[in-house]
Amino acid sequence: MSSNPSRTIPTTTHTSRTIIMSYEVPEQQWAQVIEKSGGPPVYKQIPVAKPAADEVLVNIKYSGVCHTDLHAMKGDWPLDRKLPLVGGHEGAGVVVARGELVKDVELGDRVGVKWLNGSCLACSFCEQADEPLCADAQLSGYTVDGTFQQYCIAKAAHVARIPKDVALDAIAPVLCAGITVYKGLKESGIRPGQSVAIVGAGGGLGSLAQQYAKAMGLRIISIDGGEEKRAMCEQLGSDAYVDFLASKDVVADVRAATEDGLGPHAVLLLAVSEKPFQQAAEYVRSRGVVVAIGLPAGAYLRAPVFQSVVRMITIKGSYVGNRRDTAEAIEFFRRGLIKAPFKTVPLSDLAKVYELMEQGKIAGRYVLDLSK
Ligand code: 8ID
Ligand code: ZN
Ligand code: ZN
């Protein structure tokens, strides 16, 4: 399965286009395919796709499983996705082929395939490095096939560059969860020494959010349910843990967990249920910022107008990150600042991961090993 770039780089002509590729790319590969809305994913062999002129073909070694992949399978969102669909958008691997226009990614380079698979690069959002807002963006594991396959296509301009000294299994969750929470913390405008409430702290995004928040010098109040997640949050460096399943008054408990009792300066909403989206404005500090990131099906943000006005509260959304955010989030990781727990299972186990995720039983992230 591995490629050896040093003895490769023949030019091969496929149909009308030229593809630079290594020798060892097979015709068929293992993948997890959603064939109908609601799933389950079907583990089967499918053909390996060929990159277009501006694309690369990445041999995915590891892929994280994000709750977004479960939303995609279930059809939770008012956004069309392709079917049949190969999910996945936290893929770390090695470039094994590239289109003729690709100049700045080499065969053998270690790259990440993230949610933003490609964008037009020409609209006013792309011009301002707001490519997640591009109306023509392609989304890995949603509008185009993603990383739950051994060979995945991505636009060369958008693949994440992964440094040589970084482990491909541990970096995989950074490619969505890490980038997203890093961006969310920046969007909150929070400053070192201030306090952030992380709602859904025990999940994939939440575990990484704690590490980025810690690296930024923030006080962390983690909110999630159960003792396993409490133990993980304490180990990741949270200053307080509020158990939403056990607490009689989450609002009071979150406020009480801040040093002066006035509430956190920012709230990152990462949960996959609606209630915390309607609670956060009550406990955020006056002049504080509530950042909505989690995407529970059919949910609404709700806040009392009077309190929001007289307490000068900001409520906003935050959506993945751009190429610069990607490079910065990876650099935090490379420097050893981000250590979030993950469990590795073979690609064939995806359906079991979805079951645990649906039940809220995953502390941290699951990473699929695509060599097994
Ligand atoms: O760009 C974006 N905005 C973006 C990027 C990536 C992911 C958004 N997301 C979305 C996903 O689609 C999903 O809706 O973020 C959400 C969280 O993704 P995840 O971290 O991958 O999910 P998870 O690992 O299942 O963690 C969710 C956690 O929320 C907790 C659960 O216990 C779990 O640990 N939780 C729930 I459900 N209700 C809660 C509550 N009331 C809660 N935690 C606190 N209070
Ligand atoms: Zn664009
Ligand atoms: Zn994701």
Report the biggest beta sheet as strand number plus sense, adding barrel if it closes.
9 strands, mixed
Number of helices, counting only DSSP H or I runs of 4 residues or more: 11
The radius of gyration computed from the alpha-carbon positions, rounded to a whole number of angstroms, is 21 Å
Structural class: alpha/beta
CATH classification class of the largest domain: Alpha Beta
Cofactor: Zn(2+)
InterPro entries: ADH-like_C, ADH-like_N, ADH_Zn_CS, ER, GroES-like_sf, NAD(P)-bd_dom_sf
Organism: Exidia glandulosa HHB12029
Enzyme class: oxidoreductase
Provide an overview of this structure.
GO terms for molecular function: alcohol dehydrogenase (NAD+) activity; zinc ion binding. Keywords: Metal-binding, NAD, Oxidoreductase, Zinc. Its cofactor is Zn(2+). Its EC number is 1.1.1.1. It comes from Exidia glandulosa HHB12029. The protein is α/β, with parallel strands linked by helices and 372 residues long. The chain folds into two domains: 9-176 and 321-369, Alpha-Beta Complex (Quinone Oxidoreductase, Chain A, domain 1); 178-317, 3-Layer(aba) Sandwich (Rossmann fold), CATH 3.40.50. It is 25% helix and 26% strand. The chain is built from eleven helices and 20 strands. It has helices spanning 67-74, 124-127, 168-171, 177-188, 204-215, 227-236, 250-256, 275-283, 305-310, 323-334, 350-358; strands spanning 11-14, 17-21, 28-34, 41-47, 55-64, 85-86, 91-99, 110-113, 116-118, 138-139, 151-155, 160-161, 195-199, 219-224, 240-243, 266-269, 289-292, 314-317, 342-346, 365-369. Strands 1, 2, 5, 7, 8, 11, 12, 19 and 20 form a nine-stranded mixed beta sheet that branches. A six-stranded parallel beta sheet has the order 15-14-13-16-17-18, with helices on both faces. Strand 3 (28-34) and strand 4 (41-47) form a beta hairpin. Helix 4 (177-188) crosses helix 10. It is globular. 50% of the residues are buried. The model is unreliable at 1-13 (pLDDT under 50). The chain binds nicotinamide-8-iodo-adenine-dinucleotide and zinc ion (2 copies). One zinc ion binds at residues 119-120, 122-123, 125-126, 134, 136.
